[in-house]
Amino acid sequence: MDSNVQPIFIMPDDTKRTTGKDAQSNNIAAAKAVAQTVRTTLGPKGMDKMLVDAEGSVVVTNDGVTILREMHIDHPAAKMVVEIAKTQEDAVGDGTTTAVVLAGELLKKAEDLLDQNIHPTVLARGYRVAEKEAQKLVRNFAEPVLFDNDPLLRNIAITAMTGKGAEANKERLADIVVQAVKKVSTLENGKVIITKDAIKVETHIGERSDASTLVEGIVISKERAHPSMPTYINDAKVALLDSSLEIKNTDIDAKIQITDPSQLNAFLEQEERLLQDMVQKVVRSGATVVLCQKGIDDLAQHFLAKAGILAVRRVRKSDMETVSLASGALIVNNLKELSSDDLGFAGIVRETKVGDEDMIFVEQCKNPRAVTLLVKGGTEHVAGEISRAVTDAIGDVVASLMDGFVVAGAGSIEIEVARGLRQFAQTCIGREQLAVHAFADALEIIPRTLAENAGLDPIDIIAHLRSDHDMGKKWSGVNVLNGGVFDAWNSGVVEPLKIKTQAFHSAAEVAEMILRIDDVILSGQGSDMPRDIPQDF
Ligand code: ADP
Ligand code: MG
Q1: Is the CB of 493 under 6 A from ligand 1?
Q2: What pTM was computed for the model?
Q3: When comparing pLDDT for 526 and 156, which is higher?
Q4: Domain extents for the chain?
Q5: CATH number corresponding to 217-367
Q6: How far is ligand 2, taken at its centre, from the CA of residue 250, in Å?
Q7: Of 332, 344, 416, 423, which cross-links 328 as Cys (Cβ 3.0–4.6 Å)?
Q8: 495 C-beta closer than 6 A to ligand 1
Q9: E strands within 455-503?
Q10: What is the CATH number of domain 19-144+407-516?
Q11: Nearest of 467, 461, 496 to residue 479 by alpha carbon
Q12: Alpha carbon distance 479, 410 (integer Å)
């Protein structure tokens, strides 16, 4: 080498860079670590995680996406895996652990092949081919689900909640979930249309969890702003305000010099007039109920009460949106523009005690019929975990009806698809075949993990399942509750097809993406700075 040649730097000094095999194995290790973290929570016998944030607040959960979200993961490849949990959550609402565990296993199997000197792009291509075939297979195996098949819909809800915080009351909760989804659904030309946003889950602490109920309307855990406001309004005209009913503090720091008492009075009168004007605008619009996302001044509360208006302040944004959807009210952010056209309609708006907490019920909205699952738990932690399980169940019932197809769970579908893939591999050539086999093996991580988490011998179980499936028992799955294997379909372990298609897709996609990376460039930006040194110090 010519020693006179100066090395050329194309990046700043503080850039960190890893390339080639190092970059790859580092990324794979990070992704596997994420999968490993949530793996023990998979299935009805999965364990929980206790997450404590910087303020010391605690969440106990086995919900994959909740765990990963609270962990604040930093590594770039690990973050990509966390993203698939979020995508899964948005697309289906359940199956987050499945997607992440599968991604981790696809990368683990890929590592073995990389060690045998198979090129990453060949592998990535093989995975893509395998995923496409897996999608075809899983659709072929799926069973249709009809809108009026309540027993099947209940089983879908129960499967989502088995082993979660809601376990003890899953039968009753499953009934409520199915009713709730049906209330917000309409059938148009044989197609089910569901407004999922019209379903709200509101938790309430203090009573036993079997007291959960379905309310036909929206429940807001707030009380009316002033005790002399009405507690019950019939045929309510609802205004939704995104601005405060207060006198705004100006940005400019103004000092007011008051030299004699009459000035003070004038000042206060002025303020009172302004507030009265604001309330007049509400009154003139014809509103009888006001839900305000911001604050309401004490005096304004008083005027509203005098006008017979039921007002609620600091209403959550998501509640505003649900009420808007259900009542037809528009969310107005400039009070000056509030008019009768912006108002929505609700048959009844009332304040009612739930346990010892006052809550606002917005009921008899017609289009769509919004519903609230009022979920009660003994403590905040219990209520939180029940509400996450119920939300998963809602997601699964909705996904099943929208898509129209379901599969049996307990690892049965993964074994069946793996079997189909192995047959398909025979039609592939060369190294691609190895990748398809690796994909099939990776799918078996689901039944394997279900068995492990239930304290069963995974080797025995997988062997048993494979031979069952070879004999045509396509729904043979892991019996996590009693040990051994069982027919998952007949035992009511049913999941939406969408969980699987989405999980296969995003797991394969992230695995391919990570495999294709051979260079990681961390640009400066203080990425090396210890966390506890303030940046501007
Ligand atoms: P995810 O976040 O992926 O939904 P879960 O912890 O909810 O993870 O576990 C889902 C897995 O548990 C699925 O593979 C599902 O088929 C399985 N499962 C659910 N109920 C049962 C059951 N009663 N017996 C066996 N497996 C079950
Ligand atoms: Mg689940």
Answers
A1: yes
A2: 0.83
A3: 156
A4: 19-144+407-516, 217-367
A5: 3.50.7.10
A6: 50
A7: 344
A8: yes
A9: 476-478, 485-487, 494-496
A10: 1.10.560.10
A11: 461
A12: 7
